[in-house]
Records
---
Amino acid sequence: MENPVLMLGGLCLDRYCLLSQFPVKGQDTLIQDTFERIGGCPINAAFTLKKFGLDPVLYSAVGAESIEKVRAFFHRNALAMDGLFVIEDQKTGFCMILLDDQKERTFMTYRGCEGVFDPARIPALNYRACCLTGLYLIYGADSENAVAYLHQFCRGGRDLFFDPGPLCDQIDPELLEKTMRLCTHLKVNEEERQLLEHVLGQPLTTYFQYRLQAIVVTCGSRGAQLIQPEQTQSFAALPIKLADSNGAGDAFFAGYAASVLQGKTLKECMRLASACGALTAMTLGPHAEGGLKEILQLADDGAISC
C-alpha cells in the first residue's frame, strides 16, 4: 500500500427500517421496507478515502455470526481486510436506522465486539494518518488502550482526524481530554460541539494550544464553518435533493481528511468535503455511487440536477 490510513471506529451492521411516519409512543406503524448494509463510521469514511486514491485500513473485531457477509462485502468493494479479526463467542454491533418519508432519522445502537482492541493485530504499515470516530472511545479499558496506542502513533507527527459523533457525551471525560490533545483536525456538528464543550468544561478552541490545527463544524442545510486559530470562515451548503443523510457526515469527514493529506488548502478541503457529504446525502444508504469525477463535478457546479 502506498497511502495507508488507519481507520479506528469499529465495524457494525446498519439495519434500515423505512417508515411512512414514526408511530405515537405506545402505538404501531407499518414498515415499508427493510434492508441491511455493512456500515459503521470508518466503513463509510473508507469509501470516500478510496475515491481520493488513499488506502483505508479498517481495524475491527467482527463477530463470527457475520464474518462471511463482511468478507464478501470487503471483497466486492476492494477494501483491505488485513485489519479484521474474528471473535468467536461475541456478536458484531449493529445500528437500527428508522427513516421516514420526511428523511427524519432515529438511531438505536447495540455495542458488540467491534470495540475490542489489541494493538498486535493492527497491520504494520507506514500509515499517513489515523481517522478516529468517537464510538471507539466508549468501550472502557479497550478504549483506554486504543488512546495509549494513538499517543505513540502521533509521536511521529502523523495527523489524527477525530469525529466524536453523537455519543460523545458518553465518553469518559479524561479519555476525551487525552484524545483532544492528540487530534490535529476535529469535525463536529453543532449539537456535538455543545456536548463536547459541556463534557470538557471549556471551549474547543482551547485545544489549539496543543496539536489541533482546525475545527470543522457542519451545520446541515446552513453549510459548515472552518475555525482556525486566526479566523473563522463559513461555507454554504450545496443545494441537493436529500435521499438519506446517513453517512453524509462520514463522507464529509473523509473528504476533508483526504484533501488535507493531499496538501490542499483548508478552503479547498472544505469545498471538496461538502461535495462528498452532498453526494452521499443524495443516496439511500451510507455509501454514495460515483467516484472522484462526480465529487469534483459537484464541487465545481455547486449544484446538481436531481
---
Amino acid sequence: MVVQQHRSGGGARAVCALAVVGVMMAAAGCAGDGGGGDRAAADDRSGTGAVAAVRRAAAVLVGPGSGSAAGSAEVVTSMETAAGGTRVTIRGKGTYDFRTQSGRLKVVLPQDPAGEDEHRPITELLAPGALYMMNRGAGVPADKWVRIDTTALADGNLVTGGVTDPMAAAELLGGVSAVTYVGETDLAGVTVRHYRGTTDIGRAARRASAASRGALTAAANGFRTDTVPFDAYLDEQGRLRKVRHRFSFVNEGQTREVVSTTLLYGFGVAVSVPLPDARDIYTGKIEQGRAPGTSDRTGTGTRPEPGRP
C-alpha cells in the first residue's frame, strides 16, 4: 500500500493508489502471557490517570524485560481500507525489539480478483529511519532488497509498507490529550483495559524517542490532519497488547480511511534483525505505478514512490 501526500497552495492533499481486489478478512489472533508485575492503579481508568497510562505505553514496551516491561514481542498486524467498494486487508506477522526499534515481518498482500496470489509475501525489516523490503516486485530482482528512508516519506511509514512500525504505533499514543476508559475485556485469555481517544501526530513526534522522531515528524508534516483516532488495550502490567489507529487522508476530494491494527504477545522473545549488505540493496529503477498492494496509480503528483532512488 502506498499513500502519497502532496502539499500545494499551503494545503495538503493525499493521493492513494490501492488495488481493487477480493475481500480478505483480517483474523489476527494473539496468545497472551498473563501474570507477574503489579496491577495497574485504579486511577488509570479515568481522567489524568488514563491519559498517563496510555502515554507511557511505549516506555513500558522498551523496558529491560522484567517486571512490567516488555523489551520485545511477537507481532501480528493488519492494515485495512476500502477501495472500489471492496475491503482490502494486508496482514503481517513477525517479531520486534522495542529497545533497538528493529523488527522482521512477513507481509501478505491481498489476492488478485481471480483468487491467485498476485505477489509473494514480502519480507520487511524495520529499523530506525529505514524500511527494507524483499520481494517488493515493481521490477526489483527477487534476491535484492529495497531500502526506504522513512523520514523522507510523507506518511513517515505509518501506512506505506502495509505495516505500521510497532514502536511508531506505540509512540503515536504519546500525543494523546484526552482518553476515555471503555472498560475491561478479554483478549486471547488476557484481561485488558480498553481506552479510546485521539492522538496528535505532531505532539507525539515532539515527545517521541530520537529514533522515531524523524519519521513521525515527516508524518505530521504530510498528513492533511494530525488527529488520529485510536483504541488501545493495556494489560494489568501496563503493556500495550493491541492498538488500532484510523488514519484519514483526502484522495481526489474524498476522505479515505486506513485502519491499522497491531497486536503484541510473547513478550521477551529473542529478536535478530541483521540488515542487508550494501551489495544486496537494489539501486536501479523501480517501475512507476506499481508497488506492494497497489494497482496502477491514480491521482496526480510528482513525489517518487517509496523505494525509488
